[in-house]
Amino acid sequence: MSAFPILHHHLLLLRPRLHISVKPFSRTLRGPFSSLVSAQCASSLSSTASREDTDEMADPPSAGELSEQQQLIDVNPPRGTRDFPPEDMRLRNWLFGHFREVSRILSFEEVDFPVLESESLFIRKAGEEITQQLYNFEDKGGRRVVLRPEITPSLARLVIKQGKSVSLPLKWFTIGQCWRYERMTRGRRREHYQWNMDIFGVSKVRAEAELIHAIVLFFERLGITSSDVGIRVSSRKVLQAVLQMYCIPEKIFAEVCVIVDKWGKITKEEVEKELSLAGVTPEAVKGIVEVLSLKSLDKLEEVLGSDGEAVADLKKLFELAEQYGYSQWLTFDASIVRGLAYYTGVVFEAFDREGKLRAICGGGRYDRLLSTFGSDDIPACGFGFGDAVIVELLKEKGLLPDLMRQVDDIVFPLDEELDGQASKIATALRQKGRSVDLVEEKRLKWVFKHAERINASRLVLVGNSELQRGMVRVKVLSTREEYEVKIGELS
Ligand code: HAM
């Protein structure tokens, strides 16, 4: 049956409330992957993204407002999540292609995990935001499960599962969807894809240096320079040293880190109150605040002395950065603590130097995560790099690629009886690896327009008179050149 009656029916339904039919279109345009056909177009659209992303958005008319005949399902995906129409999918594949290529260059192996994980993997008591944002529920078998908010615990789980069969060090990367019930802001959504690179079995800062190298290589491939983006680095051992100075028990270390990470996000008084509730004395709070404001390694050395691990690790990392040739990207900033409980050493975050966006990526060392799952510890470090903030940055910098659909050939029979011949020709070309769109039941004028729309390279016209001579007519669309070629020689 023709699709037209159905389409007609939908149009009739939509006509009285036109905004319903418009909404999915405008929403698609505004998503973080809204490169659509041109970077210019996308950057003009990006300014509306933050408006749409707030919870204040007007709700669509309720079912009661619409007459029975008008009731159409809500065609938008759940708030904070995205559809990926072809043009957005092209951008996503382009981005993931760079994630994969950089990982390959650094000699990392790809791994994958289920998006659905056991809730127990994410139960941590340090009061992290991430554990309060879980999409968690009971499955039909009564098991507590979550849509993972991050991938690091799954990595740790697999390392433990593989046990002695894995040879260390291991270098794994993965790209996967993560879910967090977040308040949406620019570049922060309720689902996002995260590129993770992690190294297990290297205790020296060489591992951190390799990971930061990967991040820098990635930025450079996209045309982002060290004047656009910087990477702030510190170590949790800085905070640990301060807490030791004030005899604060080790067991509240993770909790203190999570609170300190809120510095600048909530008021100073609130941070101080939370620290004191956790058991940090007012003198220690003062000490922490003083150290957090340090912006140079020399000053840190003056405060902590030169024999501590924090200073030694950071000095070594900056030395390595010189050798790799990316030191211009790095700055020491003692206020970088990161909000996840499990970090134990060096921590880092990439940021846009204009200060318009949230962290572009972040990571650090987590040498004691495995023991929280009941296993022996293995030194580990890694980073997570989301797909949303980077797209916002590319828009800001006019660096979004112009990704057109690309098809090699359109094969078009000029006569209905030639369908069989056209199929044979399309098959031969596809067997050679060319992408072929086989078009039927259209007028030639439409086919030419279609060729332009899908950016086809050639048009292969299957006509009666040419076929009788064993030939087809080929039109090269970029040059408008036209010629006949023997079917067997078409390549
Ligand atoms: P994270 O800082 O929570 O770290 O997330 C890493 C990155 O994921 C962020 O810098 C950002 O690019 C992206 N991201 C996080 N939440 C959202 C969101 N709601 N919407 C869009 N993008 C988001 C972790 O997840 C650690 N597990 C990273 C890690 C790996 N550490 C060691 N290995």
Automatic annotation (TrEMBL):
GO BP field: histidyl-tRNA aminoacylation
Enzyme class: ligase
UniProt name for this protein: histidine--tRNA ligase
GO cellular component: cytoplasm
Keywords, ordered alphabetically: Aminoacyl-tRNA synthetase, ATP-binding, Ligase, Nucleotide-binding, Protein biosynthesis
EC number(s) given by UniProt: 6.1.1.21
UniProt: L-histidine binding residues: 150-152, 180, 194, 198, 338, 342-343
Family (UniProt): Belongs to the class-II aminoacyl-tRNA synthetase family.
Residues covered by region (Disordered): 45-84
Reaction(s) catalysed by this chain's protein: tRNA(His) + L-histidine + ATP = L-histidyl-tRNA(His) + AMP + diphosphate + H(+)
Span of domain Aminoacyl-transfer RNA synthetases class-II family profile: 79-401
InterPro entries according to UniProt: aa-tRNA-synth_II, aa-tRNA-synth_II/BPL/LPL, Anticodon-bd, Anticodon-bd_dom_sf, His-tRNA-ligase, HisRS-like_core, HisRS/HisZ
CDD domains to which the protein is assigned, alphabetical: HisRS-like_core (cd00773)
Name of a matching Pfam family: HGTP_anticodon
Source organism, top-level taxon: Eukaryota
GO molecular function, one term: histidine-tRNA ligase activity
